[in-house]
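Problem 3 from the worked examples.
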Amino acid sequence: MTDTALFAPYSLGPLTLKNRIVMAPLTRTRAGDGLVPSDLAPAYYAQRASAGLLIAEATQISAQAQGYQDTPGIYTPEQMAGWRKVTDAVHAKGGKIFVQLWHVGRISHVDL
């Protein structure tokens, strides 16, 4: 099965993925205080870096975007620093990672 296109590199815009395997986003609800990615997150994603592309879990874009407990954000300096640890760990393993930006709409504002 090594001759299949699944394991061949793939150009995605300016990125070259090492294969065509993509890990879909999985909401893990393990963010810590301040909705910062937990200390487990860098290892979790680095262990999966052999996929061509990782799509990180749904990550809220503002405090008003949150609809579920313990989901990470990416709108404070502390949250961005937490995601930096994740991306550094993935890049150290030769992986590529995108984040799924998330706003839950009416779930977070039931008066709408």
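Problem 4, a separate protein:
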Amino acid sequence: LFAFGLIAIGIAPGQETFVAIYSKNRPEWTISELGVYTNRSVVVSLYDTLGTAARSFIINQASVEVVICDAEEKASALVKCKSECPTLKYIIMMDACSKQFKDTAKQAGIAVYGFDEIEQLGAKLDPKPSLEKPKMDDLCTLCYTSGTTGTPKGVMLTHGNVIATTTVFQYLTNVKLSNEDVLISYLPLAHMYERIVENAAFQCGARVGFSRGDIKLLSEDIVELKPTMMPLVPRILTRIFDKVTSTSN
């Protein structure tokens, strides 16, 4: 429905359309990603930690037409930079936003839609267009590096790249996921590591639960979601270890 909703508001499917996702981990992130892929379009991930200059650079370099955003504060920052980002035409809000924000965006030349609204428009679209499936060599995502100096560097990954990496991940790590498994999504989906592991989970019918994105609440999220698998990096493991040892002492 989300893929059809994008078409309903005038966003053309195909490899010429670049859609940015600017959000913390949540179900709408993944729904947006899969909807964009369904339309053979390209996902551009924006980190929460990006500064104004880096964010505008990415939007301009990728000619981003649509940004799917979670919070009004971040969306307002995009509207303020409209003069620096002439390709930006649409903002799709995951959370509710104020009328004042919508009016300000409209004055800047940006149309604002709610996430649920896009799905509803997709459901109502009639007739529904026949969509061409993505090809292995199609561009899947532009993943911008987070740890390099100077301007952000966009890594061009095809659907074939992602499928191959997901397959190799399962083979080399000997991970045998099933529909009994639960993955907790904590690491940023703007990173490919998290997306690859989630792809592996979906391929095997496993479930994905989304943490609240706060390291202080992570232990509570783990208790609630009861994950059998958790993608992490050494820095996070160190913080968990320090918290456990300090509590035990």
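Solution to problem 4. The domain at 2-140 is CATH 3.40.50.980 (Rossmann fold). Strands lie at 18-22, 42-45, 66-69, 90-93, 111-114, 139-144, 154-158, 182-185, 207-210.
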